[in-house]
Amino acid sequence: MVVDDEEKANILNTFFSTVFTVENEMLGEIPRNNENPILRVTNLTQEEVRNRLNKIKIDKSPGPDGIHPRVLRELSNVIDKPLFLIFRDSMATGSVPQDWRIANVVPIFKKGSKSEPGNYRPAMEANWKVIRDEGLAVMDESKGLFLPEDENLREKGDWSQYTLWQQGRKNEKSCKAAPKTCALLERFPESTGCRRGQIKYSVMHPGTHVWPHTGPTNCRLRMHLGLVIPRQGCKIRCANDTRSWEEGKVLIFDDSFEHEVWQDANSYRLIFIVDVWHPELSQHQRRTLPAI
Fold first, then answer.
1. How far apart are CA 150 and CA 159, in angstroms?
2. What is the distance between the alpha carbons of residues 101 and 15, in angstroms, rounded to a whole number?
3. What distance in Å separates the CA atoms of residue 194 and residue 9, rounded to the nearest whole number?
4. Alpha carbon distance 206, 72 (integer Å)
5. What's the rounded Cα separation, in Å, for the pair 217 and 24?
6. N or C: which end of the chain has fewer CB within 10 A?
7. Minimal CA–CA distance to 209: which of 280, 281, 260?
8. Strand pairing partners for 252?
9. Are 76 and 47 contacting, i.e. CB atoms less than 8 angstroms apart?
10. Where does the record place the Aspartyl/asparaginy/proline hydroxylase domain (predicted)?
């Protein structure tokens, strides 16, 4: 039995990569003895890619990449061109994009039901300056409103947080200092009602390193909205994927995978963290799962 999160991710990625080495009628025969094999050119078209996406069965489970079939089908007229270009170049070069083999941070649907976490991305990104300004105002207070991280996750450094929601419960006192941000979030009960998550500001100062660790549950997805990001020196690794934050942009990842953070910039980093129920949980599970 595999219990290590990174090992599980690697097994899934290895399985996913095998999909692209199977001989089938679409790709034709793949040469095996050439050191740099080239796939035979086919008459693949953008329309064919879109047609195949429209035939995906939406009642199936997501593949190892974590993208739900409904996402692929409902966005077929948006993603058909980039997928066509990727497939075309892949067949021409005989290679698969590196990110397809190692990435564990995946696209999330941006519109539709409120149960989909990606719906929060446009709302948060469109209002990121409001969220940032209220966070900075709290930081300017001389009352020690940001509390040090207390889970012993730091190897070294200075990392503090200002929590608005915890285990689905609103901190009324904290929200009074960030009223516009809290009003925005109350439009999204899948986040504010997530009893296995938090909503908080996180400030990390130079010289901080957060140990490799995993979150307590895979029942949620975690979003990081960049608010004040130094140009260099700040990065996060989730499983095999390392990224940097951008101001006004959201990163979405499953923090049950091992992740690690470095802050080696020359100034502080401020982000906004929002947890949401995992989209694969049923409404019954969301109502009955105990808080942690």
1. 9
2. 9
3. 25
4. 40
5. 38
6. N
7. 260
8. 223
9. no
10. 125-279
Alpha-carbon gap, residue 7 to 4, rounded angstroms = 5
Contact 75, 109 (CB under 8 A): yes
User: Which residue type, as a one-letter code, is found at position 85?
Assistant: L
Confidence at 95, pLDDT banded by 50, 70, 90: confident
Task: For residue 259, give the nearest of 273, 278, 280 by alpha carbon.
Answer: 273
Mean per-residue pLDDT of the chain? 80
pLDDT in tens, 148-200: 988 889 999 999 999 999 999 999 999 999 999 999 999 888 899 999 999 99
Q: In three state form, how does the secondary structure of the chain look?
A: CCCCHHHHHHHHHHHHHHHHHCCECCCECCCCCCCCCCCCCCCCCHHHHHHHHHCCCCCCCCCCCCCCHHHHHHCHHHHHHHHHHHHHHHHHHCCCCHHHHHCCCCCCCCCCCCCCHHHHHHHHHHCHHHHHHHHHHHHHCCCCCCEECCCCCEEECCEEEEEEEECCEECHHHHHCCHHHHHHHCCCHHHHCCCCCEEEEEEECCCEEEEEECCCCCCEEEEEEEEECCCCCEEEEECCEEECCCECCEEEECCCCCEEEEECCCCCEEEEEEEEECCCCCHHHHHHCCCC
Q: Among residues 148, 144, 142, 186, which one has the least CA distance to residue 164?
A: 186
Sign of the Cα pseudo-torsion (191, 196, 202, 205, in order)? negative
Q: What's the pTM value of the predicted model, to 2 decimals?
A: 0.61
Nearest Cα neighbor of 200 from 142, 151, 256 is: 151
Token duo for residue 231: 């140009």
CB 269 within 8 A of CB 119: no
Give the length of the chain. 292
Rounded Cα–Cα distance for residues 212 and 122 (Å) = 30
| Of 246, 249, 133, the residue nearest 180 (C-alpha) | 133
